[in-house]
Design brief:
This protein is α+β, with helices and mostly antiparallel strands. It has a six-stranded antiparallel sheet. The longest helix is centred in the C-terminal third of the chain and has 17 residues. It starts with 7 loop residues before the first helix and ends in a 30-residue tail after the last helix.
Amino acid sequence: SIGPLMDSAREDRFTNELVNTVVGGWLITKKIGSGKSAIVFSGDKDGKTAAVKIFDPEIVETFGKENQLERIDRELGLINHKNKNLIQLLDGGECNTSGFLYVVMEKIEWPALDQVIDDIPRSNIWGIIESICDAASFLEEKNIALDIKNSEADILFVAMGSPKKDRKSVV
């Protein structure tokens, strides 16, 4: 067994605990997604809105806080490195007041790739694969390991091209 994963009851409690609080200086406004170990919220700071991924403390404890902080630090190494197929990382670490571990990324208003995959013309699939491979190669060169999950493609990878590109032209 790999330990506890966030179930829906814990996800609901965690969401209710965090909405309208501040984590790492970001005002958490609403939940926009979730995974097995974290919830992604919309957050505001200094007039900017971003996606704020906050890790479940119980899962962090299970897998090791230091391990997660090391991973966050590696990811934060990408802040000044840009790739057209990756969401830009903005901030992250351990919140000084709450102790929550978090990563902040640019927020893009797109559905998750797994929600629209059936609507994508077959002729566009190789372009998506090429974009994901380019992003993975870029990360490998930087010695950064991130999971590529089709349900999180809207958060970590811009598999449809540039974040500024109109995704509707691909779907």
